[in-house]
Amino acid sequence: MKRRAFVQTVIALSAFPRQGNWKSWRVNGARVNKHLADLSQYGANPQGGVSRVAFGDADVAGRRFMMDLMREAGLTVSVDPVGNTFGVRPGSRSAALPILFGSHIDSVPEGGNYDGDVGSCSAVEVAHILAERGYRNRHPLHVAIWCDEESGLTGSRGFIGDLPRDEVDRPGRDGVVLAEKIRRIGGDPARIAEARHGPGSIAAYVELHIEQGGMLDERGINIGIVEGIVGIHHYDVTLRGFANHAGTTPMDRRQNAMLAAAELVLIVDRVVRSVEGRQVGTVGRLLVKPGAPNVIPGQVDLTVELRDLSTEKIERLWTQIHEEALASAKKYGVTLDYTLQHTNLPALSTPAVRAVITDAVQGLGLSSQVMPSGAGHDAQDLARIGPMGMIFVPSVKGISHSPLELTRPDDVTNGANVLLQTILRLDQQ
Ligand code: HGY
Ligand code: MN
Ligand code: MN
Known about the structure:
Blueprint: H1 3-20, H2 29-39, H3 57-72, E1 76-79, E2 85-89, E3 99-104, H4 117-132, E4 141-146, H5 154-159, H6 165-168, H7 178-184, E5 204-210, H8 215-219, E6 223-229, E7 231-240, E8 244-245, H9 257-273, E9 280-282, E10 286-289, E11 295-296, E12 299-308, H10 311-331, E13 335-344, E14 347-348, H11 351-363, E15 368-373, H12 379-382, E16 388-393, H13 409-428
Parallel strand pairs: 3-4, 3-5, 5-16, 6-15
Antiparallel strand pairs: 1-2, 2-4, 6-14, 6-16, 7-12, 7-13, 8-11, 9-12, 10-12
One manganese (II) ion (MN) binds next to loops.
């Protein structure tokens, strides 16, 4: 055998054993749990959780921290025009579509240390293992940390071209225009159209996330394999009455916006419970104006959020709620206006990706069950451009969006191992 051919064969064989036993590879559980603990310092609040709201100082610092972890894992870091952070590991097959995996690190105000963070830190850990093993991946591997997941999947909607210009130019509740906030995390609002990825542009997207409900924890099951993610409709409602003196205005001469608001909260609860199914409805924020003890409320601004796997059912529920709320407001001499602030389409996961996750779970000897997601996720946007799969790990007592949110270190490690073995299987296909 010629010398050159011999040397090439030796090189190829020397890589083979490392590639060959990839089904036995595992993450470094101590390292991923430490990164999770380190990340929780960014925006840590006195209650023991995080307030790392998107685009705030803690989010900016937390994203920088994650970029450092990506570089330590051998990834090439970039930020797209929407502000999403990516760490890329090039593939050997330049024509192969990229496999994306990741999550988010922004939190709700007074949130927990695991929502989004488990999937983000685990995705970086997977890349770190591949680098340490000298794995020769075929597909380009893109670790994604989406921006502003909590206020409507902003970053992943931008990635699929579903972030309208008027939304980018609109001031948020804090009065700051979204475009300005995107610049804070390294995005370039003028070039958002360039961030768009169309259908068929990715090989697959996989997201590891905490369940945020109690099913896995109550049943002692290691892994949830997500069958579908609910759609979410978020309505901003304004009730206008007439602000007046609380002492001199007789009870039968008032236009009290608060009475209409109080009835609307109860209407949402009753109508949503009135039909069979797993739909949910919540009034999560209510602002009274002028908000003084001695003034009859002239205006109430509130949010109504409806979720279900069926968009048709959400729309049917809202039609009934709106009709009843209008009648109630009229009774008090109050007007009702609303805007559909944003919608997230429901998404089913891809059976072929679910099968790969199932095979990875079985290879790891873990227990699992197929289940829906009552929480929204960036994965439901990625499902609109390619095959999608989601992996859940247990949330202790089903608590989430709270400083009491907890996922045990062993469960984090299990989830990261399922993610590692899933990505390896997808890359080998
Ligand atoms: O609200 C949700 O469902 C998710 O946690 N953003
Ligand atoms: Mn989340
Ligand atoms: Mn959340």
